[in-house]
């Protein structure tokens, strides 16, 4: 039976629905793409998408989690906010992992959730969930639209909040009764946020304290975080590092903020960071943190973190300064602005010669290492091959776990914004949908999703998007038929009791890909890897490559939980 | 250490939930919160009493409060010359023998009897927490049937001496 949803409603030309106002507001915000999934409470919004000739496109996922991770990947690579639409109740709750992930990793998102009609909110109506209550702790801010007159203002304000200061996710909960209301089309969207005025420009006095210390220091080191990437400050950092000749350690999320492989780049620090990086932090007398938040996976035991260093911390979020590590020189600022003022200071270096020699020696004597296998494939070598065959130029996305650490260690990130990974929340199932968003943001770049067989199975339904949107994402599965990192910790800390970490039944990933109409490949032997990667990377379309890797391989070196930076294990073979 | 913190906030939906949720999530121990309107429409004031272990935690607390989009200003008034007040309603057991005794006793605290029934009295007391607690302590032997407190609200005094805030504060706490 066909029922006209607008029966009896005479839509005059100057009248629009709440959903039309939403579409207009999205267009005004310059949105290029919306990731979403329809449902009951967003039917009016989806109808507006259908009726209007929108300037943005809509990408339909197969699960709301796929939508939101795609939006995160899009945002991380493009620097623009990711936009998501989901329905009320389960649609909204399916987004929670992605919203939390974006909150932890400072990714700008504007998320629209449908809500039941205003008249029935609070009555446990069909597909009702307390989205405001659920998302308050995991968003930068959230709104429920209670009056249609507020809608344009709220959308405008949400984009401002999501993208300025320390970026983050903002949720707008829209009751169906608002989105289907017919209304006039002349509401203002000006907003006033007296409590939200992020400090962007640094206090120059504080900046000169950093250069004063640099002229006295003997063992300075820079910790470069994702704040540099978000601020677009990689060139400024490069210049600052070159002027002063200070070695740079990057965080996991900060990979690419300083060119990997450069003389002064020590690679990643932290739990699975390089010996040279961790040792530099441990021994330094001046640690300059730019845009990192001293996460526990970086610092290890705080008692042994940079014990002799004076700490300078540049962060746009004042609450991060002094939260974990006592800070002598706090600087609240955008990384780019802070570096610009740092570059204005006279360069008056201390004597770092012995320090740089020592660091070079550490780099040379204790490089990252691995054992070569023939069959199955050694995962670290595989990542090096992926690097080589993609000329080190691809955008790489990952989940969390062993494959993530190997990608971080062995895909040397020379360029900014080529690395999309779930850092803070450590979300399995993130990497593959994030690659979809990254490919949409950068249609001309090669996007490689390096995933494990565990994580891939959490969101692989999004293979449908690769097909429907014709996105040439290359999915490289590091398949060890195990939850590798869980298995590694059980081996190391639980006397090899492999409780539920080994998969006995995996699907045939080649057939699986083919069933979605996507090219599937399998490599089991090292000697076939180079050809297989070449074939996959030159294929004009998406590919899923099932790479059978050694199950027993562990990620090294490592700082065991509770240990300090000077207590690394597995530094050498 | 006990700290008294006043936050000026934009009065938007869910603001109390946002702030108490954040404090709970970050494991701050709230002793009391009182919330009320300010003289400006759309702006509210919240007064928190929190038990804080060290200076670093205190700094985190004010920073996390400031980070909230709705929070306009955060003031730690503990070491300033301040006026603090709370209000308590106490329903205490009273019969013909004890009633006059209780009524005499509370006059020293400038408390009021606001309801009388056959077997109880309802007393309202306003003042600094120490004073309120002292009266409750005296009433307890008679049998307290019910008790409710508003939580602390505070204001910096109009005149702030240039030094010795905490000293003055200590003096007034004893005086």
TrEMBL record, chain A:
<keyword id="KW-0285">Flavoprotein</keyword>
<feature type="domain" description="Thiamine pyrophosphate enzyme central">
    <location>
        <begin position="207"/>
        <end position="341"/>
    </location>
</feature>
<comment type="pathway">
    <text>Amino-acid biosynthesis; L-valine biosynthesis; L-valine from pyruvate: step 1/4.</text>
</comment>
<keyword id="KW-0479">Metal-binding</keyword>
<dbReference type="GO" id="GO:0005948">
    <property type="term" value="C:acetolactate synthase complex"/>
</dbReference>
<keyword id="KW-0786">Thiamine pyrophosphate</keyword>
<dbReference type="GO" id="GO:0009099">
    <property type="term" value="P:L-valine biosynthetic process"/>
</dbReference>
<keyword id="KW-0460">Magnesium</keyword>
<dbReference type="Pfam" id="PF00205">
    <property type="entry name" value="TPP_enzyme_M"/>
</dbReference>
<dbReference type="InterPro" id="IPR029035">
    <property type="entry name" value="DHS-like_NAD/FAD-binding_dom"/>
</dbReference>
<dbReference type="GO" id="GO:0000287">
    <property type="term" value="F:magnesium ion binding"/>
</dbReference>
<keyword id="KW-0028">Amino-acid biosynthesis</keyword>
<dbReference type="GO" id="GO:0009097">
    <property type="term" value="P:isoleucine biosynthetic process"/>
</dbReference>
<dbReference type="Pfam" id="PF02776">
    <property type="entry name" value="TPP_enzyme_N"/>
</dbReference>
<dbReference type="InterPro" id="IPR012846">
    <property type="entry name" value="Acetolactate_synth_lsu"/>
</dbReference>
<dbReference type="InterPro" id="IPR045229">
    <property type="entry name" value="TPP_enz"/>
</dbReference>
<protein>
    <recommendedName>
        <fullName>Acetolactate synthase</fullName>
        <ecNumber>2.2.1.6</ecNumber>
    </recommendedName>
</protein>
<keyword id="KW-0100">Branched-chain amino acid biosynthesis</keyword>
<comment type="similarity">
    <text>Belongs to the TPP enzyme family.</text>
</comment>
<keyword id="KW-0808">Transferase</keyword>
<dbReference type="GO" id="GO:0030976">
    <property type="term" value="F:thiamine pyrophosphate binding"/>
</dbReference>
<dbReference type="InterPro" id="IPR039368">
    <property type="entry name" value="AHAS_TPP"/>
</dbReference>
UniProtKB/TrEMBL annotation, chain B:
<dbReference type="InterPro" id="IPR045865">
    <property type="entry name" value="ACT-like_dom_sf"/>
</dbReference>
<keyword id="KW-0028">Amino-acid biosynthesis</keyword>
<dbReference type="Pfam" id="PF22629">
    <property type="entry name" value="ACT_AHAS_ss"/>
</dbReference>
<comment type="subunit">
    <text>Dimer of large and small chains.</text>
</comment>
<dbReference type="InterPro" id="IPR004789">
    <property type="entry name" value="Acetalactate_synth_ssu"/>
</dbReference>
<keyword id="KW-0808">Transferase</keyword>
<comment type="pathway">
    <text>Amino-acid biosynthesis; L-valine biosynthesis; L-valine from pyruvate: step 1/4.</text>
</comment>
<dbReference type="GO" id="GO:0003984">
    <property type="term" value="F:acetolactate synthase activity"/>
</dbReference>
<dbReference type="GO" id="GO:0005829">
    <property type="term" value="C:cytosol"/>
</dbReference>
<dbReference type="GO" id="GO:1990610">
    <property type="term" value="F:acetolactate synthase regulator activity"/>
</dbReference>
<dbReference type="GO" id="GO:0009097">
    <property type="term" value="P:isoleucine biosynthetic process"/>
</dbReference>
<dbReference type="InterPro" id="IPR054480">
    <property type="entry name" value="AHAS_small-like_ACT"/>
</dbReference>
<dbReference type="InterPro" id="IPR039557">
    <property type="entry name" value="AHAS_ACT"/>
</dbReference>
<keyword id="KW-0100">Branched-chain amino acid biosynthesis</keyword>
<comment type="pathway">
    <text>Amino-acid biosynthesis; L-isoleucine biosynthesis; L-isoleucine from 2-oxobutanoate: step 1/4.</text>
</comment>
<dbReference type="Pfam" id="PF10369">
    <property type="entry name" value="ALS_ss_C"/>
</dbReference>
<comment type="similarity">
    <text>Belongs to the acetolactate synthase small subunit family.</text>
</comment>
<feature type="domain" description="ACT">
    <location>
        <begin position="4"/>
        <end position="79"/>
    </location>
</feature>
<dbReference type="InterPro" id="IPR019455">
    <property type="entry name" value="Acetolactate_synth_ssu_C"/>
</dbReference>
<comment type="function">
    <text>Catalyzes the conversion of 2 pyruvate molecules into acetolactate in the first common step of the biosynthetic pathway of the branched-amino acids such as leucine, isoleucine, and valine.</text>
</comment>
<dbReference type="InterPro" id="IPR002912">
    <property type="entry name" value="ACT_dom"/>
</dbReference>
<dbReference type="InterPro" id="IPR027271">
    <property type="entry name" value="Acetolactate_synth/TF_NikR_C"/>
</dbReference>
